[in-house]
């Protein structure tokens, strides 16, 4: 279908974009890569009065180092994130998960910031942002503020951004040293969204094989109205030194979650998947596979 | 809004409504109907073309977003009367049946080979995961792309499925009674 009519502006700086968004009023929307928004407009599920296209704001694109963090511009495309040398070195979990998003053509347009701002609990990148303790940098008429990933995902498709704020960048703390990572995505066919996904980052006690888990961070995709940080299981995983201990600890990952029941699977099936995938992701991340 | 783009080597400048999808602009505005539309959900990939050399689903891009870009559709892939190696391989390996998915499939393959000139079979399958085919079962599409890759690397095409298939003899059913 053809979307309903809207006005369109394409600012070339973040400052211009912020004022364009405020001037256009409440019914205006940001257009990033358009890979979630344009399908929604085509199905006439949304009727924005104005689209403020960030596609020409170059300052929002690219990855740079800033001390202990990477700063990833909100408009950095999935295809750029997954191939970026800094992301591969310091945020391998993000590179790995981004490579599982959609398909190459969608990844050429879709952006990291757009995926987080869209806040679909079935999206792969929000769970990763949670597991990596990312911080989201928002810019609005009142200035700039930083929101922890934990506080960013408020409800289904709803974030802590106010309607006149733009997500400008994402700060991702570097993982260095004895960290291992893995994103386990369970889906039925290529290109499909995750039925369940598990993002795991695990720090080991030492570099000798046979070490035990010193710290674990687990993010869950599609296990509720928002992406979930599975704090309870993180504590249980500390000290695990073999596959059996990881499996035992992972069995509590679904406690307190309320995943959806839909064509992809029933809620209890998703909880089962979360347990299995957590064990797999942690075992792989910790190098305890043997 | 005024939009200027180069499509298959020709520069067009037109007035478009912001809500016009790139596919609709090409098909209805410019009369370049080589790019089909197969779905309403950005899933099928039949509308895939190259914007500044990268594959995109043109049903999920607004024409205004493509202002200032260079676009290659299936109609601009051949050099004069010489087909692109991927087009040639699809013919030789029977990589199409009804042909509806073919323009998108071929452009997705061209994009894949521009990043990865020597893909494995698995990489070809993943590279084309955004393109659905309801006829072929994909086997011959994958063969076509592997053959085109081989030809483009200078190793020559893989043996075609027609030329080298042994002639089959068919027994008439029930003839032996
Ligand atoms: C066929 C298909 C398959 C897909 N499969 C997957 C998948 O497996 N996993 C997955 O994670 N995703 C998947 N996606 C979604 C894809 O990752 C999108 O790129 C992403 O969800 C949205 O990013 P975008 O840049 O395209 O944002 P847009 O579609 O442009 O915007 C999405 C929403 O976020 C808002 N927004 C965007 N950027 C900002 C910003 N900087 N500040 C404030 N608000 C903003 C917009 O107003 C809009 O409401 C798929 C999409 C398609 C079409
Ligand atoms: S028409 Fe189906 S993906 Fe574009
Ligand atoms: S050849 Fe018919 S859909 Fe692919």
Structure commentary:
The complex is a heterodimer of chains A (290) and B (177). Chain A contains twelve helices and 14 strands. With 290 residues, chain A is of the alpha+beta class. Chain A folds into three domains: 47 residues, 2-Layer Sandwich (Uridine Diphospho-n-acetylenolpyruvylglucosamine Reductase, domain 2), CATH 3.30.43.10; 114 residues, Uridine Diphospho-n-acetylenolpyruvylglucosamine Reductase, domain 3, CATH 3.30.465; 108 residues, Enolase-like, domain 1. In chain A, the strands form four sheets. Chain A has a five-stranded antiparallel sheet. The longest helix of chain A has 20 residues. The mean pLDDT of chain A is 96. Chain B is α+β, with helices and mostly antiparallel strands. Chain B folds into two domains: 75 residues, Roll (Ubiquitin-like (UB roll)); 68 residues, DNA polymerase, domain 1 (Orthogonal Bundle). In chain B, 29% of the residues lie in helices and 13% in strands. Chain B contains five helices and five strands. Chain B has a five-stranded mixed sheet with strand order 2-1-5-3-4, with helices on one face. In chain B, strand 1 and strand 2 form a beta hairpin. The longest helix of chain B has 14 residues. Chain B is globular, with a radius of gyration of 19 Å. The C terminus of chain B is likely disordered. The chains are: A alpha+beta (290), B alpha+beta (177). Chains A and B meet through helix 2 and helix 6 of A and strand 4, helix 3 and helix 4 of B.
Tell me briefly what this model is.
Chain A is an alpha+beta fold. Chain A has helices at residues 14-24, 37-42, 78-83, 85-90, 92-98, 104-109, 112-118, 124-131, 149-152, 231-237, 243-250, 267-286, and strands at residues 7-9, 29-31, 50-53, 63-66, 69-73, 135-140, 143-148, 153-155, 158-159, 166-173, 179-186, 196-204, 213-221, 228-229. Chain B folds into 2 domains: 2-76, Beta-grasp domain (Ubiquitin-like (UB roll)); 85-152, Orthogonal Bundle (DNA polymerase, domain 1).
């Amino acid at each position: 279908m053809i979307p309903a009519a809207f006005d369109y502006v394409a600012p070339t700086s973040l400052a211009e974009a912020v004022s364009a968004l405020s001037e256009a009023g409440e019914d205006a929307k940001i257009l990033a890569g358009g890979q979630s928004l344009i399908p929604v407009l085509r199905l006439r599920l949304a009727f924005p009065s104005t689209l403020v296209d960030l596609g020409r704001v170059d300052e929002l694109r690219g990855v740079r180092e800033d001390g202990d963090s990477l700063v990833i511009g909100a408009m950095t495309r999935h295809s750029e994130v997954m191939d970026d040398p800094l992301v591969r070195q310091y945020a391998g979990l993000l590179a790995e998960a981004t490579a599982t998003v959609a398909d190459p053509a969608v990844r050429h347009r879709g952006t990291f910031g757009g995926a987080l701002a869209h806040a679909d609990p079935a999206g792969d990148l929000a769970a990763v942002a949670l597991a990596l303790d990312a911080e989201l940098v928002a810019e609005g008429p009142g200035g700039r503020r930083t929101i922890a990933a934990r506080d960013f995902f408020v409800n289904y498709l709803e974030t802590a951004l106010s309607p006149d704020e733009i997500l400008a960048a994402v700060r991702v703390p570097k993982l260095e040293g004895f960290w291992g990572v893995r994103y386990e995505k369970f889906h039925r066919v290529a290109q499909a969204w995750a039925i369940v996904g598990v993002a795991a980052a695990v720090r080991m006690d030492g570099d000798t094989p046979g070490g035990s888990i010193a710290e674990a961070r687990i993010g869950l995709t599609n296990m509720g109205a928002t992406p979930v940080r599975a704090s309870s299981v993180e504590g249980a995983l500390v000290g695990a030194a073999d596959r059996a201990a990881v499996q035992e600890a992972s069995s509590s990952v679904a406690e307190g979650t309320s995943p959806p029941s839909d064509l992809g699977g029933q809620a209890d099936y998703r909880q089962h998947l979360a347990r299995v995938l957590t064990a797999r992701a942690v075992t792989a991340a910790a190098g305890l596979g043997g | 809004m005024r939009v200027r783009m180069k499509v298959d080597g020709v520069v067009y400048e037109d007035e478009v409504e912001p809500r016009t999808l790139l596919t609709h602009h090409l098909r209805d505005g410019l009369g370049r109907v080589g790019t089909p539309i197969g779905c309403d959900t950005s899933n099928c990939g039949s509308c895939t073309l190259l914007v500044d050399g990268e594959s995109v689903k043109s049903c999920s891009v607004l024409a205004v977003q493509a202002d200032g870009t260079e676009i290659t559709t299936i109609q601009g892939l051949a050099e004069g009367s010489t087909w692109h190696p991927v087009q040639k391989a699809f013919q030789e390996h029977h990589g199409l049946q009804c042909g509806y998915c073919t323009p998108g499939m071929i452009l997705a393959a061209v994009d894949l080979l521009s990043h990865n000139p020597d893909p494995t079979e698995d990489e070809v399958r993943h590279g084309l995961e955004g393109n659905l085919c309801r006829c072929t079962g994909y086997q011959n599409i994958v063969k076509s792309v592997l053959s085109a890759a081989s030809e483009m690397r200078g190793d020559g095409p893989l043996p075609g499925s027609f030329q080298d298939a042994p002639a089959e003899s068919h027994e008439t059913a029930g003839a032996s009674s």
